[in-house]
Structures are given as structure tokens and as C-alpha cells.
UniProtKB/TrEMBL annotation:
Residues 495-514 have a biased composition (Basic and acidic residues). GO terms for biological process: proteasome-mediated ubiquitin-dependent protein catabolic process. WD repeats lie at residues 632-665. The keyword Transit peptide does not apply. Residues 523-537, 544-556 have a biased composition (Polar residues). SMART domains: WD40. This is WD40 repeat-like protein. One of its GO terms (cellular component) is GID complex. The chain crosses the membrane at residues 292-314, 326-347, 374-394, 400-424. It comes from Rhizopogon vinicolor AM-OR11-026. Residues 585-595 have a biased composition (Low complexity). InterPro entries: Quinoprotein_ADH-like_sf, WD40/YVTN_repeat-like_dom_sf, WD40_rpt, WD_repeat-ST_regulator. The keyword Repeat applies. Residues 1-31, 495-559, 573-607, 947-989 are annotated as: Disordered.
Length: 1014
């Protein structure tokens, strides 16, 4: 309200308040919807304008960052990703600690739970220490996102240890004990892993000491985690003194994801154990306690009965019967009291929290506690029964009374003895056979062994022979009786045929009748189906005619003919019913590509970061104009690898169709030579530094070719060849074979061998000064021979000194590393990984005359991408980094700033990509090639001087436009060339180039090509 304005009266405030609290309902007019849509359109337009202006500012502004510094957005992305990974790990640790705390509270209700409580507390203590070390490591890597934790604020979760230390502190008031161990740093991580594995083993052992319940899921998860912890602890021993290196710290941080999976599994199984296992154990212990309590009650009651009856006989002494009665009844009283007392003792022992587990108690103690109450009670009953029988005679009862008492006592005693024997036998069977056999099975086995005795077998054979003779005599007599009334019977052919069909037997002395079968008969259905298959699938000219069986009694048909006809019928039936095989061929190619004439693909709206120099800003417009200008039908199978020659005149490709092709680079590219390989897939091609020789790698061989396609040498190797790499001078090359790298000359002679111990090398490269090898690959096993149980195998980046033949530096990584490429200056190396791990740039530094790899950049895509093949340096002075995705994406980053300069989306391409290669001899325009699953090779080039207007883009047809179906003109051995008379995007059934292999066949393709613009 403006100063000096009149104050409204009070009733106006009341009306305004009423309207504000309960506003009247008014239907919104249609104009509000139109206004809302108009505002949204304006906001979208303003957003696009702001993005365009920011892109223009990025092109025009001066560099703001140093050469080797990360772009803030990229570094911020790595910081956020690392902090999120640690936070997830912390949540998992806290969840497991919570479950262990709940388990400890639930286990207090169980007997003999002191062991499991102590191990759970010790495990929680190890979790707190591990979390502290990983937090300290994450704070070093991501200082802006993860804060350190002071050691003074750590609380020991081990309650028993805290109570013991509190008592010690009372006894020594001047000494204050530490909360946790004092050596909690990253260097102690191997020992912490070992202690953690030991704590897990102790926890599992204490858990299995409860025989009432066994959870295999808990056992499996804990044993798996224990194996991986020991594997990590053993492998980390090799990095003593290097735990403050950023590379080792990143590897330790990456272990949080592997540990998190184990922790989640244990947390889930432990939660299930608390819900199911603890109540089961509690029920079993209550059941055992209830049995002991019942025995104690029965023994107490029986001791009272024995004491009462003893009053009738304790005064009668002097004769043998009276003394025997008193002896049995006094013994019964003693045994019943012992049974009651031992039952109470066993009940107290079972419910004790601090009792020792069963395997820590002497056997006689366990037997006395568990078995003595029942045994004493049985002995008390037996003594009382014997004394009762004798009492009837000593008290001079009647004969009827004495006899009945004796008989009934014997009968009940026999039943008691039989049941006790059966019960004891069942216990013996369970102990000896571990629950795999029942007592009845054991008795059957015993009977079978008894029958296998010599004497018993002889007797059984005699009985068997006698019974056989008797049975044979009965059969003969019955047969004679059946033949008497059937001598004059006449059997018709139809009846005999029906009997044969019913019984399923064939009588060769009878004639089969062609009498039709009932329509629903299964035999009729089978015959119909056979004839149906014969009519459709049999090539025999008479297959459609019904099969008739001739009279076998015809003297013109011999048994040999019958056998031949039967075999022929079976063969015809099999050929008719067997499915016909159809030969499959590769699918025709029908993908379309957009030429520079068509609208350019949508890329990033703008690069939202600033770059380290004006060169990068000048490169971006050229990258935006990259288009697939040529599509070559190179192979009939997957393109495995490709590489341009150093002079840029040739492009060599290798494929799984056992061929390698040399293309002459030009407008257009034409096949120069086809290098056929008789056996094995061609996995790699490598041009010599001078560009006059080409290596092709097979599984166990290496071929040396000239640029004219002449095979100079085939070098056979005894081991599988993983990779090949030329020396800078071109006088020799390296062959990677398992854990060895062999240096070979051009004649195949072994010049030297470099051993990498426990590492299975995937790829190597050599520095320009020939002093060091850089290799990548997974380790075969830990230094002590351990293997991971569930986690990924550790991989290493190695720096090998060629002169001293010593590994100077080894850097651990967790992702599946596959390739390493050295830049022209020999100072940085590009490392490529499999799956979704992005490529990384590592710098080769010298520290005290030893080389060491230091991570400089991680080239992050905007969305997770499944990368394909090795990454490549590109551009002038290797200023670009290229990587292809399996789905068809192509990412191009700036090498020094790790900024994503250009991204070709997957939907703009046809077919999945497998590899990519840059033409270093072509700086203007840029050129690179890609290989795909369908065998096609596509060349990408830039048009730096051409920028189509938006109106031209809208008028031009897309790659999937419908055009007339007329063949394109062919020139230069079937290669399509640019021709202004040919309309763009027409369909042809002819291949783009002459296929290198004659039997590949033509492919159908939609193609568009660039035309020259003035």
C-alpha cells in the first residue's frame, strides 16, 4: 500500500478475508487455456534462444582454463558420481549393522547365545572400521562432496569390549582407552580385510553351532564374501606404499560397489534368518526344555509312588523275597529321584545363555545331561515292576493275583523293551547314515545281505528250481487241455486280423486283410498320419498310393524280398516324417543413410562448457558437419577391426568371414586387394609405420602382407595371439601371447620375450624410445593363488622396462580393460574398456627414473553407453578422442579438457557398430571409418565450407523417403559414385561395390550421397 493512500474501512478487510479464505467458485473461461499454451510456447522459444546465445558465446570467448585442467562440469560430474557411490556403500553398511543389532537382540532369547553375540559385536566393530577407512579415502578423492570423520567421534559397537574397558578404566583411572584401533589408515586396508574375513568366519561358525536350524543361504553368502575379502587383501599387498596414489585410491573406491553387493546379500539373508531361523531355534530349544520338564514331572510323581509303596514292605525283612522287594523298590526310588534332579539340571543348562556349544563340551557331559534322565526313569520303572511282582509272592497273595500280575508285567515290560530298542536303533541309524536312510531301509539291507549268504542262497536256489519245474508242468498240462477242443476249429482271416491288431503281434503265416478300421481307432489314426506324411514329404512316385500288404504265403515272394520291402518302407517313413532343412542366409541390408544433402542429425543444443583453447572452438563446427558419405559392402560377417594406413591412402578391414580387404581411399573408395585366409577369423589388422606392410592376426598365426596384397610371410605361433603391435621403426613387431609378449622380426625369428608373471595381457604398446612397454589385462590369480568367488577379477595397467625386464609400475583397475593406445608424443595413453566403462586418458610420468601412469581424464558420456571396440585418438596432434557405442552412438571428446564436443545419436545410423578408426593423414576434411555387425564399412567426412540453411534442410528428403525403384549407375567395378543425373535415395538391388568374395551375393540398400555445392 502506498504511503498517503486512504485506509479502507474495517468491513472491507473482512470482505477481503472472506473472499480469500472461501473464494467463490468460478468456471475458468476458455481464454485461460489459450493463454497458458501461449505462455508455454514463449517459454520454449526463450529457452532455445538462450541456448543459442550461450553456444555463440562459447565459440567467441577466449580460453579460461589451463591446458591440463578438468572442465568444471566434468569434474563436478565425477565428484557427484563418486560421492553417490560412497553414500550407497554407507547406507549398505548401516543396513547390515542394523540387522546385526537386531540379530543380537533376538539371539539373547536363545540358549548358548554368548558366542553368536560376541561374534556379532566383533563383526559390527569391523564394519565401523572399514567404513571409516573408505570414508577417509573418499574424502581424498572427492573433497567437495565427502567430509572426513573425526576419530574421536567413533563409537565402539562391541558392548562386551566397552564393559571390559570400563572396568579396566575404573581400576586404572589415569588411563583412557581409545575407542577403536589407532592404525586406521588406508595402508592397513589389507589387514582390515583379513580381520573382516576372520570375523565373518567366526560369526558363521557360531551360527552353525545351533543344530536346530541351518540356513544354506546365509552360509553361501558369508562364504562368498569371505573368499572375496581374502582375495582383495592378498592382491592389495602388492601396493604397499602406494595407497596414497590417486589410481590406487580410485581402485579402492571402486571396491565399494563389489562389497555392496555382498553386503546386500548378507543383509537380506540375515533378515530372513531373524524372521524364520531364530523362532525355529527358539521353538526347538523350548521343545527340548519341555521334554526335560515332562521327564522331571514324571520322575517326581513316580518317586512319590515308589516311596508310598515302600511303606508296605520296608518292615518285612528276613527272607529272600522280602529283601529282594525292598532292594528293587529302594533302587527305583533312587533312580526316580536321579531322573528328576538330572532333568532339572539339563533344563537349566539348555536355557543358560553362557553355556558352551555342543562341540565344546566333553562327550560324557553331553550324554549325562541329555540321556541320563530318561535312562534313570526307565531303570526306575523296571525296578519298581520287578519289586511289584516279587511283592505279590512275598505277601502271600493268591495264585491268580500273582499270576496275572506277573503276566501283565512281562507283557508291558516286553513292549517297553521293544519300543526302547526301536528308538535306540533309530538313533543309531541317524548317527551312522546322517539321515540318508531310515531304519526300515537298514533292516531291508540286512535281510538282503543275509539272503546273499552261501548256505541261504543254496537253499533258495533249490526252492526256486522246484517251483520252476512245478510251474512248467502246470503250463504243459494246460496247453494240452486247450488243444483238445481246438483241433477242428476254423479261423477266418478277418478274425485273425482283428486279433493281431488287438494284441499288437504279427503272424507271418496269416494274410493281413485290408479291412478298414474304425474312424476313432488309434491304429487308424496312426496309419492315416503315416500316409499323410508319405503323401507330402516322400519323393517316391508311388508315395501317395495306399500301402497294401501282399499275401506272405505267396510262393513268388521270398523272405529276402520281404526283408527288402520292410527296410524300404521304414526308410520311406523316416524320410517322410523327418523335417526338411532349409539353408539360411544373411538378411539383406535395408538401412538408409543421410548424405550431406539431407538434414543434418540433431546433436547437442550447445556445448555448455568453455574449452582450453581456440582450436577446440574452431573444431566444433567441423565436427557438426560430420556425415556418413560412403557405405561399402565390405564383408558378409561382423567387421572386427579396421585401420587407415599412415599416409591415408588405404583402409584395411578384417572380418569374421575370414577375409581382410584393403580399400583405396578416395571419392569413391574402391576395393584394392582382398586378402583371403584359409582358416580362422581375422581379428586385427596393423599397418607398419611406413605404410608398406600390413599385419593380419589370426588365432595362432600372423601374416605379413604388402600393400599390393602379396603375402610375404606366415608366422605360426604355438599360443593364442591376443594382439599385435608394430615397433616405431617398423623393423619388428610385438605378439601378445597370454602372459608373454614376444618380439618378432619380419622373418618370424624371436628377438626377445617379455614375461608379465600373473597377468594375462590383452594389448600392449611401446614408447617411441623403445624403453618401455605399456600393457593391460586381468591377473590370473592372487600372489598366494586365490581366486575371487563372486566379484570381478582385478585388472592391471603395467609399465614394463624393456632393458631391465622389470615391471616398474602396476596400477589396479576393476573394469574390463581391453586396449591401450599411445599418443604421437608418447606422453599420454588412451585406455579402453568393455561394456559401459568410459575410456580414460593416463599420463606417463617419470618419478625417480621409473615410469608411472597417472589418470588425467575420464571421458564421460551424457547417458550410459555400451561401448564397442577400442577408442581412438583423432584430429591434429591427437587433440580428439573418439569412441563408438554398440547401439550406433559416436562420441567425440576434447582430449585435454574431456569435454564432449559432438555426439552422433544411435537412431541416425543403420546397424550396430563394432569398431572405429581415424584417418590421421586427413586433417581437412576430417575422416574416420566405422564397422558394423552386418559387414558394412561406413566412411564419415566433414564439409567445412558448407552450412545448409534451415529452409534447405526442411525441403530435402530424409534417408527413409520413398522413391522410384530404378538401379543406380555403376562405375569403377560396381562402385556407386556421385552423379547429378541420378536422384538421391533411389533403390537398387546391386551392391555398392563388387563383393570381395564371389559367393557373398548382392545386398539391397538405401543410400544417399553427398553432392558438390557451390
Amino acid at each position: 500500500m502506498h504511503r498517503g493512500s486512504p485506509v479502507p474501512p474495517a468491513h472491507q478487510f473482512k470482505d477481503y478475508h472472506a473472499e480469500t479464505v472461501n473464494p467463490p467458485r468460478v468456471d475458468p473461461p476458455k481464454l485461460d487455456t489459450k493463454r497458458r499454451q501461449t505462455l508455454l510456447s514463449l517459454l520454449n522459444a526463450l529457452n532455445e534462444l538462450s541456448q543459442t546465445e550461450s553456444l555463440g558465446r562459447d565459440f567467441d570467448q577466449n580460453p579460461n582454463f589451463e591446458d591440463d585442467k578438468d572442465v568444471p562440469t566434468v569434474d563436478e560430474q565425477l565428484q557427484v558420481a563418486g560421492a553417490e557411490a560412497f553414500n550407497r556403500f554407507q547406507k549398505r553398511i548401516n543396513s547390515l549393522d542394523k540387522e546385526l543389532r537386531n540379530f543380537a537382540n533376538a539371539a539373547r532369547q536363545l540358549g548358548s547365545s554368548v558366542g553368536i553375540l560376541s561374534s556379532a559385536f566383533r563383526l559390527r566393530e569391523r564394519l565401523i572400521q572399514i567404513l571409516f577407512i573408505f570414508r577417509d579415502n573418499a574424502a581424498d578423492l572427492f573433497p567437495r562432496k565427502v567430509s572426513r570423520q573425526q576419530r574421536e567421534f567413533l563409537v565402539n559397537p562391541n558392548l562386551m569390549d566397552r564393559k571390559r574397558k570400563a572396568r579396566r578404566r575404573k581400576s586404572m583411572p589415569g588411563r583412557v582407552p581409545a575407542h577403536l584401533e589407532d592404525n586406521l589408515d588406508l595402508e592397513s586396508l589389507p589387514e582390515q580385510f583379513e580381520s573382516f574375513a576372520t570375523a565373518l568366519t567366526t560369526f558363521l561358525k557360531c551360527l552353525n553351532e545351533f543344530p536346530e536350524f541351518t540356513d544354506e543361504a546365509v552360509n553361501t553368502s558369508i562364504k562368498s564374501f569371505e573368499g572375496d575379502l581374502k582375495y582383495w587383501a592378498c592382491c592389495l599387498q602388492d601396493y604397499r606404499g602406494q595407497f596414497k596414489y590417486p589410481a590406487v585410491q580410485r581402485y579402492v573406491h571402486d571396491l565399494t560397489a563389489e562389497m555392496g553387493e555382498h553386503i546386500d546379500t548378507i543383509t537380506g539373508t540375515l533378515s530372513m534368518f531373524i524372521e524364520v531361523g531364530v523362532p525355529t531355534i527358539r521353538f526347538a530349544q523350548k521343545h527340548g526344555a519341555a521334554n526335560l520338564l515332562t521327564l522331571s514331572t514324571v520322575a517326581t510323581f513316580f518317586s512319590a509312588v515308589t516311596a508310598t509303596t515302600l511303606q508296605f514292605s520296608y518292615s518285612q525283612t528276613g527272607d529272600i523275597l522280602s529283601d529282594a522287594v525292598n532292594a528293587f523298590w529302594f533302587s527305583s526310588l533312587v533312580f526316580s529321584i536321579a531322573a528328576a534332579v538330572n532333568s532339572l539340571l539339563g533344563l537349566s543348562w539348555k536355557q543358560a545363555m553362557y553355556r558352551s556349544p555342543g562341540d565344546r563340551v566333553p562327550w560324557w557331559v553331553l550324554i549325562w545331561i541329555k540321556r541320563s534322565p530318561l535312562v534313570f526313569l526307565v531303570m526306575s520303572v523296571a525296578c519298581f515292576s520287578a519289586g511289584l511282582v516279587l511283592f505279590t509272592y512275598s505277601s502271600h497273595q493268591g495264585k491268580v493275583t500273582s499270576t496275572i500280575t506277573t503276566v501283565f508285567t512281562a507283557f508291558t515290560s516286553f513292549g517297553l523293551a521293544a519300543v526302547s530298542t526301536w528308538f535306540a536303533s533309530e538313533k543309531w541309524t541317524f548317527v551312522h547314515h546322517r539321515g540318508q536312510k531310515w531304519l526300515s531301509d537298514v533292516l531291508k539291507d540286512a535281510l538282503r545281505h543275509f539272503m546273499a549268504l552261501r548256505l541261504v542262497s543254496i537253499v533258495s536256489k533249490c526252492f526256486g528250481l522246484g517251483s520252476r519245474y512245478v510251474q512248467k508242468g502246470v503250463e504243459v498240462a494246460g496247453h494240452n487241455l486247450r488243444r483238445v477242443p481246438s483241433m477242428g476249429a476254423v479261423f477266418t482271416t478277418g478274425i485273425d486280423h482283428d486279433d493281431n491288431l488287438t494284441t499288437g503281434e504279427s503272424d507271418h503265416d496269416m494274410k493281413r486283410s485290408p479291412e478298414p478300421l474304425p474312424p476313432l481307432s488309434p491304429i487308424r489314426q496312426s496309419v492315416d498320419s503315416q500316409s499323410h506324411f508319405s503323401s507330402e514329404g516322400s519323393p517316391h512316385p508311388n508315395a501317395e498310393s495306399p500301402t497294401t500288404f501282399s499275401d506272405v504265403s505267396d510262393p513268388t515272394i521270398t523272405p529276402r524280398d520281404r526283408l527288402t520291402n520292410a527296410i524300404r518302407s521304414v526308410m520311406m517313413l523316416q524320410s517322410a516324417t523327418s523335417p526338411t532343412r532349409k539353408r539360411t542366409t544373411s538378411s539383406a541390408f535395408s538401412s538408409a543413410f543421410t548424405a550431406p544433402d539431407t538434414p543434418r542429425r540433431k546433436t547437442e543444443a550447445g556445448v555448455t562448457t568453455t574449452f582450453g583453447g581456440s582450436k577446440v572452438a574452431s573444431v566444433i563446427p567441423k565436427l557438426k558437419s560430420l556425415e556418413a558419405t560412403q557405405d561399402l559392402a565390405a564383408h558378409s560377417a561382423l567387421v572386427r577391426h579396421l585401420q587407415f594406413s599412415p599416409n591415408g591412402k588405404f583402409l584395411a578391414t578384417s572380418s569374421w568371414d575370414r577375409t581382410s580387404i584393403i580399400f583405396r581411399v578416395g571419392e569413391p573408395c574402391v576395393p584394392h586387394r582382398v586378402l583371403a585366409h584359409a582358416s580362422g577369423f581375422v581379428g586385427q589388422v596393423a599397418w607398419s609405420p611406413a605404410g608398406v606392410l600390413l599385419l593380419t592376426r589370426l588365432n595362432r598365426a600372423i601374416k605379413i602382407w604388402t600393400e599390393d596384397g602379396v603375402c610375404r610371410k606366415t608366422i605360426e605361433r604355438h599360443h593364442h595371439v591376443q594382439s599385435i603391435a608394430w615397433l616405431p621403426g617398423g623393423e619388428a613387431f610385438l605378439s601378445v601371447e597370454g602372459s608373454e609378449v614376444v618380439k618378432l622380426d619380419l622373418n618370424g625369428n624371436v628377438l626377445d620375450t617379455y614375461h608379465f608373471k600373473r597377468v594375462f595381457i590383452h594389448d600392449v604398446t611401446i614408447t617411441p624410445d623403445l624403453q618401455r612397454l605399456l600393457g593391460v589385462g586381468p591377473i590370473l590369480h592372487s600372489p598366494t593363488g586365490l581366486h575371487p568367488s563372486k566379484s570381478r577379477v582385478e585388472k592391471q595397467l603395467l609399465v614394463y622396462n624393456v632393458d631391465t625386464k622389470v615391471i616398474e609400475n602396476q596400477t589396479p583397475v576393476l573394469n574390463d580393460v581391453r586396449d591401450i593406445t599411445l599418443a604421437k608424443n608418447g606422453q599420454v595413453a588412451l585406455v579402453s574398456y568393455e561394456n559401459k566403462a568410459p575410456p580414460q586418458l593416463w599420463k606417463l610420468e617419470m618419478v625417480k627414473d621409473q615410469a608411472r601412469l597417472t589418470l588425467r581424464h575420464t571421458y564421460m558420456p551424457k547417458v550410459p553407453v555400451d561401448f564397442a571396440g577400442p577408442s581412438y585418438f583423432g584430429g591434429k596432434d591427437d587433440q580428439l578422442v573418439l569412441c563408438a557405442g554398440k547401439a550406433g552412438d559416436i562420441h567425440i571428446w576434447d582430449r585435454d579438457s574431456a569435454a564432449l564436443l559432438h555426439h552422433v545419436h544411435a537412431q541416425a545410423l543403420g546397424g550396430d557398430l563394432t569398431c572405429i578408426a581415424w584417418n590421421h593423414a586427413s586433417d581437412n576434411p576430417f575422416m574416420f571409418a566405422t564397422g558394423s555387425h552386418d559387414g558394412a564399412v561406413r566412411l564419415w567426412t566433414t564439409a567445412p565450407d558448407y552450412r545448409p540453411s534451415p529452409s534447405e534442410l526442411s525441403r530435402r528428403p530424409t534417408a527413409r523417403s520413398t522413391h522410384s525403384v530404378t538401379p543406380l549407375p555403376i562405375r569403377n567395378n560396381g562402385v556407386r559414385t556421385d552423379n547429378s543425373d541420378v536422384p538421391l535415395g533411389e533403390y537398387t538391388s546391386e551392391p555398392l561395390t563388387l563383393t570381395p568374395v564371389e559367393d557373398i551375393g548382392a545386398r539391397d540398400r538405401f543410400v544417399t550421397f553427398a553432392q558438390s555445392h557451390t
